[in-house]
Every structure is written in structure tokens, then in C-alpha cells.
Amino acid sequence: MSSLRKKALVRLLLCAVVFIATIVFCFLLLTGTFDGGAEPASTPESSSVAEGESPAGDSAATDSVPAEGEDSSSEAVEPTPEPTPEPTPVNFDGLSEQPTTVYAEGEQPAFTVTPDSNMNLRAGPGTDFDKVAQIPAGTAVTALGTNADETWVVVQYEGQYGWLAKEYLNAA
User: Fold this and answer.
1) Rounded Cα gap, residues 148 and 97, in angstroms
2) In whole angstroms, what is the distance from residue 59 CA to residue 37 CA?
3) Whose CB has fewer CB within 10 Å in the chain, the N or C terminal residue?
4) CATH for 101-171 (2.30.30.40, 3.30.1360.170, 3.40.50.300, 3.40.1160.10)
5) Which stretches of sequence are listed as region Disordered (predicted)?
6) Would the pTM count as exceeding 0.70?
């Protein structure tokens, strides 16, 4: 291997090492672990220091006097809590009666129709409501909501909403 190629290879490896070190340094700086992890990298104190300057070397940046009415004992800024989003009302099209409780996404219980017989999917929580469809025995369904006494659940089967009697469902 020629000396020119060796020099080029050494330079390439040196650049790669510097590049990786820069990425690690930036990650540590952004996550706050490089400065001890006491506070995030975007605090007012760290943003007032220009790039390349040391905060310890500039006494004006570290010896600031609080303005009148400011509390000098606590410099940490409390994060503003995120507002809780209001649940959007759910309307299950095609039902004669809407559920009183609607399960949140990820909290919906799974059931299996009993293996002995098919079940009638109904427009409301009761056998006196119209039959919407029939669900084959052993079919897995997910409850989307329930009535007040939790004896009937709303499910979606083949794109259609309906009610099933909970007593004929097995927890999955």
C-alpha cells in the first residue's frame, strides 16, 4: 500500500472518530447529562452564554441580580403541565341506544363469543331490540362501551355496531 493511500486512510479514520465523538457530545449536551443532569440544556442561564465562551469566565453572566419582585432563591423554572384533552363524544351509528360508558383506546376489553352457539348482534341492550347481525360462535370481539349495569357491551362486527349480552361472552 502506498504512503499516499495510508495517509488518506488515516485521515479518513480520524475524521470518522471526530464525527462520532461530536455526535456523542451533542447527544449528551442535549439530554442534559453532560452538565451533570441537574437541568435541561435549554435553561435561561445556558442560552445566555455564547458559543465558545465559558460561563465561569464571564462574571456578568453568572452574577446577575434578580429584578425587583423576582424570587432569587429558586432559579429552576417549573414546566407548564399539559392540559388534559377533552374526550370527544362518540356516536355509534345504527344503534337505538348509545352506551353509557365508552372505553378509551387501549382499555377496551376483548371477548370471545361462546363456542356453543352464534350470538345475535342487537340495536340496543336487550332482546326486545332489533337484530342487526349474527356473530358466529367462537368469534373474537372487542368491547367499545357498555350500558349502565355492564350487562351488555357494544362491539363492532364487519363494520356494524351492535350490542351483545355480556353473560354469553368469554374474556379473552
Assistant:
1) 12
2) 23
3) N
4) 2.30.30.40
5) 38-105
6) no
Short-list 153, 147, 157, CA closest to 167? 153
Cell of 1: 500500500
Which grid coordinates belong to 60? Answer: 456578568
Residue 145 grid coordinates:
362501551
> For each of the chain's 172 residues, which pLDDT tens digit applies?
788 888 899 999 999 999 999 998 888 888 877 665 455 444 444 444 445 555 554 444 445 555 555 555 556 677 777 776 555 556 777 788 888 888 888 888 999 998 888 999 999 999 999 999 999 999 999 999 999 999 999 999 988 999 999 998 988 8
Domain boundary assignment for the chain: 3-62, 101-171
β-pairing verdict for 131-135 and 119-122: antiparallel
The whole-angstrom separation of Cα 24 and Cα 127 is 65
